[in-house]
Amino acid sequence: MRGPAGFFLCSLLLAAPHYTEVAAQDVQPDPKTPCANWMGGAPGYPGHNGLPGRDGKDGKDGLKGEKGEEGVQGPKGDPGDIGVPGREGPRGIPGYPGQKGQKGEGAFIYRSAFSVGLKERAPHPNVPIRFSKIFYNEQSHYDASTGKFLCSIPGMYYFAYHLTVYLSDVKVSLYKKDKAVIFTYDQFQKNNVDQASGSVLLHLSTGDEVWLQVYGEGDNNGVYADNINDSTFMGFLLYPDLDVH
Q1: Residue 13 backbone phi and psi in degrees, to 5
Q2: pTM over 0.85
Q3: Which ranges are annotated Basic and acidic residues under compositional bias (predicted)?
Q4: What is the pLDDT of residues 8-34, one digit of tens each?
């Protein structure tokens, strides 16, 4: 067969095996199905859960969030125990001097004192010795005309006397309110000048008198004084009675 019809026939014959091969490839059975796609069975049961996988690596920190609103203040707690005292801090710098205060009263606002000496050589016995040489008598609590000290401020007083002894023995006593408190005796040694002394603490009330006098006869009146030898008598207030002043 020649001509165009023959050429067409030859073409069909050559293409037939190719289409048969394509058809055969389209109908291949699924290897996963038991019956190769021509007889499907029932679905199987789900398998068991597998073991958990291992923990993954920690992720990176995220961005810092915004600050939240302040919460409501809670109730006040119980006081805690007192802690151990801390170490002493460093010494501070000295401050500036303060203003000068007002002048206060003196510590010794009550004063009473005297110091006197003898002028005449032999005072009369059994009467107060009148010491008329005044060393100190600012408050005038000692009376030179009587030889007596008059207490104006009640309190504790100290009295003392130092007498020069010459020509005869000396016996003297210190009196308080017509009563002898202490006695002093000194025996004179010929061709010599001696000393006799005594002292005492006395509590006096207002109006009490204190003085010194020779007791006995004239043979015991060797109290002496001249321009180079003194016989002295003194007394002063130690402290007043606070309940009175």
Answers
A1: -65, -40
A2: no
A3: 54-70
A4: 554 555 544 444 444 444 555 555 555
Element (H, E) at 237: strand 232-240
Distance CA 201, CA 237 (A): 10
Nearest to 171 by CA among 230, 223, 124, 226: 223
Q: What is the CATH number of domain 113-240?
A: 2.60.120.40
Selection from 223, 178, 166, 177 nearest residue 198 by Cα: 223
CA distance 245 to 243: 6
Q: What are 102's two structure tokens?
A: 């007002």
In three-state secondary structure terms, 4 is helix
The burial of 67, by beta-carbon neighbours within 10 Å (0-12 exposed, 13-18 middle, 19 or more buried), is given as exposed
Cα–Cα distance measured from residue 150 to residue 227, given in angstroms and rounded to the nearest whole number: 28
Let me know: does 115 contact 143? Beta carbons within 8 Å. no
Cα dihedral sign for 17, 18, 21, 23?
negative
Residue with tokens 């068991």: 48
Supply 107's token pair.
């510590």
pLDDT of residue 24: 44
Helix then strand then coil, in percent of the chain rounded to 5, is 10, 30, 60
